[in-house]
Specification:
Elements: E1 13-17, H1 25-28, E2 35-36, E3 57-61, H2 79-82
Antiparallel strand pairs: 1-2, 1-3
């Protein structure tokens, strides 16, 4: 019995890898950009200088985000200031 395959991420993405020889300016302008798979432009690009000989390809990514995690860009910065300010060190005010 095989395990069910994991549900694909809704953030799967692609970037466009220009061909090694003769890549057009249209692709060079967006080669480092990631697109959600469902929103990626079709190849050849409309502005391609050689649509019949285009050899550009899609590069697949699990996630559109390029950094590890953009949701917490300042994680850990406040920790260094609040570590010394622990007010729990004294007597508990609720104990009589």
């Amino acid at each position: 019995m095989s395990k069910p395959s994991p549900k694909p991420s809704p953030y799967r993405a692609v970037s466009i890898r220009p061909s090694v020889v003769g890549a057009c300016e249209a692709v060079r302008g967006i080669e480092h950009q990631r697109f959600l798979s469902s929103e990626a432009p079709l190849l050849p690009l409309p502005d391609c200088s050689d649509p019949n000989g285009c050899r550009c390809k899609y590069k697949h990514w699990d996630d559109r985000r390029q950094d590890e995690d953009r949701r917490t860009p300042f994680r850990g910065i406040g920790d260094q200031y609040h570590a010394q300010d622990d007010k729990r060190a004294g007597r508990d005010r609720r104990s009589g």
